[in-house]
């Protein structure tokens, strides 16, 4: 068997095994050394390939697609700095628990550390940000080597999904010639049962033993002022179950917008979504001292909530994790519960009999929440604000679609102004490392799942990732981008740095002064500007009737936006205090 035949069968068996394990999408960036993988993936009919030229954008595209579909997506790039450009998205995938199979082509061993072009150190180049790394053997076509590549493909897929999901790296050293021979017969293997790997998995779920469930139930029964908190979570099926738990125990749920609890048809009568506004006040935080807190999902976006739990550090606090990990930056004494969340909810629902309810406790949260919502949803300004932008999106976004949210101010405004709705809206955000990079690419990747998507993003984040618009144009994906342009980093206007007038604009405000309509023209986007909340709703509804890419720019003023937000918060806290006086 000559080398080209060995290369072809070796690579084809790896790809076929990925397909058998469940890979349905691969994101490929063009390059020479990755030719075997790229061409074989394109020949394999069961896996859809997406060609994204810029590797940094490609990795975030894959992340968005994997986040939306909740299944692993493969990535293919050539050797050298192409692989290094994956790094930011891999970090995000690791911390946000998104499964990626990172397949990096490499120079063969004899071309390493000798000055060969595009030869950098790729062995474990992502460090601890991948769950598993493997350096593949040089291609051979013997039966034992074909079985080996299938085993490694299965292992890579398994590691990306086991426990907390995340990225894995498989490094492929390839010698030239690099072009596979597709005229060969049976390159995928004739007998699939014989040519599939020996790795078969049956996975159970973690659950809390009855003894520990009873201990929790005993605490909850005698502690009427309980509180459920739902942080960022990918599993929308969990929402109904946790709301039933809150109802059974008669306690409120603080629901982060990324928890998927605010949206959908389930009963949301116990959901509190305006807590960020009124927990900003220390006196109100003290009034709302709970008997215990049980949190599902990651840490909520709200900084006011962080202050709240730090001030009540002596209160029993439980964090539920499906598999493993420690996600509590408060520094509090935290009890971690490792159990499947839905099953734990059902176990605790069964123990709700004989509980001591505090109707006053629940009603206080609901009353404060209603006051917050009344103020947050009231009025329309002559010039649109960033909070009004979120209100408009929440009002007209179509059912069964996705809202992708940028970090910094965008996600915080969604936290404040996107209230509960019966619409089935998935709300996604890159909250692993919380960066503003790669957001457009992530959203475009999520849209590649086939569901219409709305992206809310700030101007600096938009600037960081304009390359991501190419895939939207190339594949005519149904995306509406709402670009909030306050000419700089709006979130810093709410931080103490804003008091430093000498250095603030240059280091924190960072205005870019870019005419973003030119970017829209470059990528064939339908580009509009909305100046009021009503106008934005009209523009949004029109964009949802169009195919392809739409961009709606909303221009705001950072100083005015800061004052508008603070006025809202002050009015809310004043009314709550007056009500309790």
UniProtKB/TrEMBL annotation:
Homodimer. Its EC number is 2.2.1.9. Gene3D superfamilies: 3.40.50.970, TPP-binding domain. NCBIfam families: menD. Residues 219-405 form the Menaquinone biosynthesis protein MenD middle domain. It catalyses: isochorismate + 2-oxoglutarate + H(+) = 5-enolpyruvoyl-6-hydroxy-2-succinyl-cyclohex-3-ene-1-carboxylate + CO2. Its cofactor is thiamine diphosphate; Mg(2+); Mn(2+). Catalyzes the thiamine diphosphate-dependent decarboxylation of 2-oxoglutarate and the subsequent addition of the resulting succinic semialdehyde-thiamine pyrophosphate anion to isochorismate to yield 2-succinyl-5-enolpyruvyl-6-hydroxy-3-cyclohexene-1-carboxylate (SEPHCHC). The keyword ATP-binding does not apply. It is an enzyme of class 2 (transferase). Residues 13-124 form the Thiamine pyrophosphate enzyme N-terminal TPP-binding domain. Binds 1 thiamine pyrophosphate per subunit. GO terms for molecular function: 2-succinyl-5-enolpyruvyl-6-hydroxy-3-cyclohexene-1-carboxylic-acid synthase activity. Residues 440-554 form the Thiamine pyrophosphate enzyme TPP-binding domain. SUPFAM superfamilies: DHS-like NAD/FAD-binding domain (SSF52467), Thiamin diphosphate-binding fold (THDP-binding) (SSF52518). Belongs to the TPP enzyme family. MenD subfamily. Keywords: Magnesium, Manganese, Menaquinone biosynthesis, Metal-binding, Thiamine pyrophosphate, Transferase. This is 2-succinyl-5-enolpyruvyl-6-hydroxy-3-cyclohexene-1-carboxylate synthase. Pathway: Quinol/quinone metabolism; 1,4-dihydroxy-2-naphthoate biosynthesis; 1,4-dihydroxy-2-naphthoate from chorismate: step 2/7; Quinol/quinone metabolism; menaquinone biosynthesis. InterPro entries: DHS-like_NAD/FAD-binding_dom, MenaQ_synth_MenD, MenD_middle, THDP-binding, Thiamin_PyroP_enz_TPP-bd_dom, TPP_enzyme_TPP-bd.
């Amino acid at each position: 068997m000559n080398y080209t035949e060995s290369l072809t069968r070796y690579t084809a068996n790896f790809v076929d095994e990925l397909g058998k394990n469940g890979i349905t999408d691969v994101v490929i960036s063009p390059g020479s050394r990755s030719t075997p993988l790229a061409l074989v993936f394109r020949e394999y009919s069961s896996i859809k390939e997406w060609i994204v030229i810029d590797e940094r954008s490609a990795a975030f595209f894959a992340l968005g697609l994997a986040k939306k579909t909740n299944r692993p997506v493969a990535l293919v790039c050539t050797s050298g700095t192409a692989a290094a450009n994956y790094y930011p998205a891999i970090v995000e995938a690791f911390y946000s628990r998104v499964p990626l199979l990172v397949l990096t082509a490499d120079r063969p061993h004899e071309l390493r550390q000798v000055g060969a072009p595009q030869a950098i150190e790729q062995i474990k180049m992502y460090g601890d940000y991948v769950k598993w790394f493997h350096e593949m053997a040089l291609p051979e076509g013997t039966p034992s080597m074909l079985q080996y590549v299938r085993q490694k493909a299965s292992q890579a897929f398994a590691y990306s999904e086991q426990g907390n999901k995340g990225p894995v790296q498989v490094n492929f050293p390839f010698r030239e010639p690099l072009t596979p021979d597709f005229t060969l017969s049976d390159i995928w293997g004739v007998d699939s049962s014989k040519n599939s790997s020996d790795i078969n998995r049956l996975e159970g779920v973690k659950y809390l033993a009855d003894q520990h469930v009873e201990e929790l139930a005993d605490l909850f029964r005698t502690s009427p002022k309980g509180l459920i908190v739902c942080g960022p979570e990918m599993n929308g099926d969990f929402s109904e179950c946790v709301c039933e738990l809150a109802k059974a125990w008669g306690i409120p749920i603080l629901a982060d917008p990324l928890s998927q609890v605010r949206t959908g048809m389930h009963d949301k009568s116990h959901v509190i979504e305006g807590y960020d506004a009124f927990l900003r006040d220390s006196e109100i935080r003290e009034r709302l001292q709970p008997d215990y807190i049980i949190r599902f999902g990651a840490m909520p976006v709200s900084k006011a909530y962080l202050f709240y739990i730090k001030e009540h550090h002596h209160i029993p606090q439980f964090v539920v994790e499906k598999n493993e990990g420690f996600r509590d930056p408060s520094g509090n004494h935290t009890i971690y519960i490792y159990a499947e969340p839905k099953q734990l909810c059902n176990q605790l629902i069964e123990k709700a009999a004989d509980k001591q309810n505090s109707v006053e406790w629940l009603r206080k949260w609901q009353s404060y929440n209603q006051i917050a919502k009344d103020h947050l949803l009231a009025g329309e300004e002559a010039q649109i604000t960033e909070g009004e932008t979120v209100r408009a999106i929440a009002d007209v976004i179509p059912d069964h679609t996705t809202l992708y949210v940028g970090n910094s101010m965008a996600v915080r405004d969604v936290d404040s102004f996107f209230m509960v709705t019966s619409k089935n809206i998935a709300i996604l955000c890159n909250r692993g490392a919380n960066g503003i990079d790669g957001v457009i690419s992530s959203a475009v990747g999520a849209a590649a799942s086939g569901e219409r998507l709305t992206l809310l993003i700030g101007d600096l984040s938009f600037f960081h990732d304009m390359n991501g618009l190419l895939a939207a144009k190339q594949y005519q994906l149904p995306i509406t981008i709402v670009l909030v342009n306050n000419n700089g980093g709006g979130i810093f206007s709410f931080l103490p740095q804003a008091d430093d007038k000498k250095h603030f604009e240059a280091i924190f405000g960072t205005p870019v002064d870019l005419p973003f309509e030119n970017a829209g023209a470059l990528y064939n986007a339908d580009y509009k500007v909305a100046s009021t909340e009503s106008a934005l709703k009209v523009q949004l509804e029109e964009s949802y009737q169009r195919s392809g890419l739409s961009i709606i720019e909303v221009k705001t003023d950072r100083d005015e936006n800061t004052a508008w937000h603070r006025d809202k918060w002050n009015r809310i806290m004043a009314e709550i205090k007056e009500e309790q006086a």
